[in-house]
Write a structure and sequence with these properties.
With 195 residues, this protein is mostly beta strands. It folds into two domains: 124 residues, Thrombin, subunit H (Beta Barrel); 62 residues, Thrombin, subunit H (Beta Barrel). It has a four-stranded antiparallel sheet with strand order 6-7-8-9, with no helix packed on it. A hairpin with a 5-residue loop joins strand 12 and strand 13.
């Protein structure tokens, strides 16, 4: 699985940390399956060709035209209930796909062409997020407007959506097998990876 480490691999970078974060260029824990390097700015996702013909874009895809919305880096971060800084609005690569979480929707993009494979509407409001969108294997899980949702990453199909109480606390098991929903009165477990 290819996931960004979030670390700047250039130790001699001239960028200040704030400036570097405006246009994230993640380093990867494994080789990307296509000879391209995906990255994004607030409005588009790009794929830079790697190899002898490098320096040219293989493709670019507009986040706004694909109904995801513009990712404003100044509004992309929020604090979780535990006061941890999170980034609900972002673009990441995993399982051979590119997934964008914007203010208007969540979409998966084909890494070889940049075309949107599927999209789900949502109206981002950091105060309404109970569980920030997170990938677990080939599943995407999030909770917004008190609706816990699991999506199949390959197809975009909603596998389940259940309502949760306002006071519900959500957290994954250490082995990422289940998402636990805990209230003062009851507990429930929702599978993260299997059907």
């Amino acid at each position: 699985m290819c996931t960004p480490t979030g670390k700047n691999t250039d130790a001699d970078s001239d960028f200040e940390p704030l400036e570097a974060s405006r246009f994230p260029v993640p380093s990867y824990k494994c080789a990307y399956p296509i000879a391209q390097f995906p990255f994004h700015d607030p409005e588009k996702i790009y794929a830079l060709k790697l190899g002898r013909d490098g320096g040219k874009f293989a493709w670019e895809s507009s986040l706004k035209k694909n109904d995801v919305g513009t990712i404003d880096f100044e509004k992309a971060f929020a604090y979780s209930r535990k006061k941890n800084l999170t980034q609900p609005l972002r673009v990441e690569t995993a399982n051979g796909q590119i997934v964008a979480y914007g203010p208007d929707g969540i979409a998966a993009f084909d890494p070889s062409t940049g075309s949107a494979k599927w999209k789900h509407d949502w109206s981002y409001d950091w105060q309404k997020i109970k569980f920030t969108p997170e990938l677990f294997g080939n599943k995407l899980m999030y909770c917004v407007d008190r609706k816990l949702t699991r999506i199949d990453l390959a197809t975009g199909a909603v596998e389940f959506q259940v309502g949760v109480d306002k006071e519900t606390h959500l957290f994954p098991m250490p082995d990422d097998s289940y998402l636990i929903a805990l209230t003062d009165k009851e507990a429930a477990a929702y599978p993260l990876k299997q059907n």
